[in-house]
Amino acid sequence: MTYTHFKLRMDEHQITWVGIDVAGESVNTMGTPVLNELGTLLDDFEKQTPKSVVFYSLKKSGFIAGANVNEFVEIGKTENLDEAVALTKRGYDVYERLANVKYPTLALINGFALGGGLELALACRYRVAVDEASTRLGLPEVMLGIMPGWGGVKRLPQLIGAPAAMDFLLSGKTADAKKAKKLGMVDEAVPPRIMWNTAIGVLKALPPTRKLSFVQNLMTNGFLRGYVASQARKQVAKRARPEHYPSPYAIIDLWQKYNGDVHKPRAEESCSVHSLISHPTAMNLIRVFGLREQLKAQAKGIEFEAKHVHVVGAGVMGGDIAAWCAMRGIKVTLQDLDATRIAPAIKRAADMYKKRLRDERKIRDAMDRLQPDPTGSGAAQADVIIEAIVENLAVKQKVFAELEAKAKPSAVLATNTSSIPLEQIATALAAPARLVGIHFFNPVAQMMLVEVISGTQTDPSVARNATAFVDQIDKLPLACKSAPGFWVNRILAPYLGEAMKCLDEGIAPETIDEAALAFGMPVGPIELADVVGLDVCRAVGETVAPGATEPQKLKAKLEAKALGKKTGAGFYTWVNGKAQKSAAGAVPAGLTDRLIQPMLAEAQKAFAEGVVANADLADAGAIFGCGFAPFRGGPLNYQRTLSSTH
Ligand code: NAI
After folding, report:
1. DSSP string of 99-138?
2. FRET label pair with 498: which of 43, 269, 358, 438, CA 20 to 30 Å apart?
């Protein structure tokens, strides 16, 4: 028998090895054709029963990344809800068949097994996870506003107990191989060299499958089931409002009432696939997934790879940009006026690597790649040079004249400026077309979006190389025109400005923040201003709206040198990285609109001016750069839906 997406072989132990190798894709996803072929495979196994079966991946990376979300993205565009419901039920049925076969089955999980990928593994009798850095197991559907409808809601609680399963189902978090073994999600977690033999060993020994402990069983199948569900609802309520994010609530209901069977709820019930998929949140979150891919797609097909990055300016931004690039495997030289100004950046990098890389060898390698370079000799070898020095035109011009003289002709020359027009800096260059903006956001490690700024003088091929570089370091590039505030700060400024006006009118910061949270912003504007830094906020305000009157409370804080989180006090007092807030008063009618409207209006205006190339990229920039409520699909999308419902 031959298949398009599976390669079968039988070994000397009569084990049938099913290598998953989805045709035409670099990673495995369970799209409709693959799912259908799995059905055919199970038909064939019915006719000729195998002794035992191992599912494993033939791809270089990962087991299965999940369902093919692009199918949902396409469905979202046509709003064919029936197709989405049918797709979910088809997957549920095929996996149900797999779970009920009489012959032993085993999933050998080499790399990520997410969503529909993990659900396939859960439908097997045994699971062996390969203990390597890339192995991650999880059910991230909740982050797309949908639910693990291919048996995940049913099987994960039976395997690891309902409380632990709820934790995964409702947050979308992932576990590595060791954690998965500890929880009982997999039977074995083994190093790559013994993975094949372990799978064979399990299928020869056929150990009894894992049973829940007495208490776990009570919580999952017994009288404590209702208690677990109500605790889970309380936990979710702390993080997500049901009107904004219905899917975690639907997951709990589907489990509690129907044991995860997607066929059981009636279409009008809130835990049905139909209800979830017809809620705007799911379609918007699925669209956001597509937008992220669109941002990445800007870098597709560009042949440019940075092997060496030179960063000038080791301050807040330059230091962290350098540390990030070195963590991503690139050699980095970091220049400042003298070595003592570079030292704090190296120390911050060491702290970040410890937190993020954990492994001693990886930390050492990253530190080796990050080299202090007070004389700036690295500029001559670098493929990308990023300037992140003080925001002063004359100093930047001087530095660029020197850099251009040293740099390789092919090197990208980039500035991280937030407010100085590129065209003005470029006058210092013999070839002004070489200058591009690569605008990172603070804090560099957390903010996924990076704006790639083209001035009128920028050569498009330089901007393309800068885009490829941003993608290379795993950030999301957004191409922008050089206009005050670019895209993100331009639309953020009027929103923060309005919040400052509210403060001056005597509305409590907590109440203002609460009004924005009610819209679905992840943090309120006053807390955000404190995080960004009140000095930076003022600078952004001056760039976007020069000559506007300065808000009084902001002025007072700046005079008192209370700059926000970084100084421990701003509009809030900050203790251990947390804003100390009082209870928010009742949000006055209209306050939410008052805050959000200026941002929406500015987004329309900037979009009409062509600051970004299309509406999708504009929405993506607002979501990944400003935290614009993701389930509303971005400011332009949101305004479209408003006008279509009015
Ligand atoms: P910073 O003041 O923390 O760091 C600037 C560094 O540049 C200092 O270490 C200084 O010694 C060094 N420097 C000054 N002149 C130099 C020269 N001639 N050669 C070498 N090094 C020199 O400033 P920050 O906040 O890191 O900002 C840097 C740039 O990034 C600015 O253009 C700013 O507009 C931009 N930016 C800042 C953001 C922020 O939130 N702080 C966000 C996005 C962009």
Report:
1. HT-SS-EEEEE-S-EETHHHHHHHTSSEEEEE-STT--EE
2. 438
The strand pairing partners of 479, in sequence order, are: 452
- Is 68 designated active site? no
Predicted structure pTM score = 0.87
Q: Please return the burial class of 361, using the count of CB atoms within 10 Å of its CB with bins 0-12, 13-18 and 19+.
A: exposed
Please give the helix or strand (H or E) that residue 189 lies within, else none. Answer: strand 188-190
Under CATH, which number does the domain 489-610 receive? Answer: 1.10.1040.50
Which of 310, 316, 450, 565 is the best mutation target for the ligand 1 pocket, counting ligand atoms within 8 Å of the beta carbon and taking the most? 316
Active site residue 392: no
Distance 493 CA to ligand 1 centre (A): 21
Given 387, 451, 514, 602, which residue is catalytic? Answer: 451
Q: Which of 439, 465, 510, 527 is catalytic?
A: 439
In the DSSP assignment, the letter for residue 385 is: E
Say if residue 646's pLDDT is above 60. no
Atom of ligand 1 nearest to the CA of 396: 18
* CA distance linking residue 508 with residue 572, whole number of Å: 11
Nearest-atom index, ligand 1, CA of 390: 5
CA of 377 to the centre of ligand 1 (A): 19
> Given a cut of 90, is residue 387 above it in pLDDT?
yes
Fold assignment, 6-278: 2-enoyl-CoA Hydratase; Chain A, domain 1 (3.90.226)
Domain 308-485 has CATH 3.90.980.10: no
Active site residue 439: yes
How far does the centroid of ligand 1 lie from the alpha carbon of residue 303, in Å?
Answer: 30
348 Cα to the center of ligand 1, angstroms: 16
Residue 23: burial class (beta carbons within 10 Å; 0-12, 13-18, 19+): exposed
- The DSSP string of 421-453 is -HHHHHTTSSSGGGEEEEE--SSTTT--EEEEE
**Which of 264, 343, 273 shows the shortest CA–CA distance to 85?**
273
Contact 514, 587 (CB under 8 A): yes
Q: Which atom of ligand 1 is nearest to the CA of 539?
A: 34
642, two tokens: 């408003």
To the nearest 5 percent, what fractions of the chain are helix, strand and coil? 50, 15, 35
SS (H, E, C) 5-74: CEEEEECCCCEEEEEECCCCCCCCCECHHHHHHHHHHHHHHHHCCCCEEEEEECCCCCCECCECHHHHHH
C-alpha to C-alpha distance for 120 and 107, rounded to whole angstroms: 8
The first and second tokens of residue 406, run together, are 């040293």
Residue 147 · residue 276 · CB < 8 Å: yes
- Asked whether 255 and 163 are in contact (CB, 8 A), the reply is no
Q: pLDDT for 147-177, tens place per residue?
A: 999 999 999 999 999 999 999 999 999 999 9
Distance 506 CA to ligand 1 centre (A): 35
Instruction: Judge whether 6-278 and 489-610 match in fold.
Output: no
Q: Which residues line ligand 1 (CB under 6 A)?
A: 312-318, 335-337, 341, 388-391, 395, 399, 416-418, 440-442, 536
What burial letters (b/e) apply to 557-566, b meaning 16+ CB within 10 Å? bbeeebbbbb
Domain locations along the chain: 6-278, 308-485, 489-610
Tens of pLDDT along 562-571?
999 989 999 9
28, 418, 454, 482: which one is catalytic?
Answer: 418
Nearest Cα to 170, choosing from 279, 274, 273, 246?
A: 246
